[in-house]
Amino acid sequence: MRLQLKEGIKGQQEIMVEVKDTAANVGSGTVEVFATPSMIALMENTAQASIAECLAKGEATVGIEINIKHIKATPVGVKVKCFSELTEVKGKKLLFKVEAFDEKGKIGEGKHIRYIIDTEKFMENVK
Fold first, then answer.
1. Which CATH superfamily is domain 10-126 in?
2. Where is the active site (predicted)?
3. 63 in Cβ contact with 114 (< 8 Å)
4. Which residues are annotated binding-site positions?
5. Is 36 an annotated catalytic residue?
6. Mean pLDDT of 85-92
7. What are the residue ranges spanned by the domains of the chain?
8. What confidence score (pLDDT) does residue 85 get?
9. If DSSP states are collapsed to H, E and C, what string results for 70-112?
10. Known catalytic residue at 124
């Protein structure tokens, strides 16, 4: 049975930026700083993990929209913390506020939308 999915659910994750997370490595740039795609992946993962226990067996969420500002560069070897908050539930549509910080302050912020799916039905439609 699904736990109550309600506004205000918060998530938090922390990573240490590694070479694999850099713009030069993921192909989004040529410098070795925390890549925007890596930051976005961390934000999406933080949001989905925050509500995972609220889903019924066989359900998952998929990201359908993201609007992010990458404010500041973060070098390899620096810790990044990401926070999410479920701000609105519209049926199966979930809206999140997401933020990321390094040791010197905020590095990214924005909004993220996820949608609850039945995993089996979803995958049938992908084939």
1. Hotdog Thioesterase (3.10.129.10)
2. 36, 44, 70
3. yes
4. 63, 114
5. yes
6. 97
7. 10-126
8. 98
9. ECCCCECCCEEEEEEEEEEEECCEEEEEEEEEECCEEEEEEEE
10. no
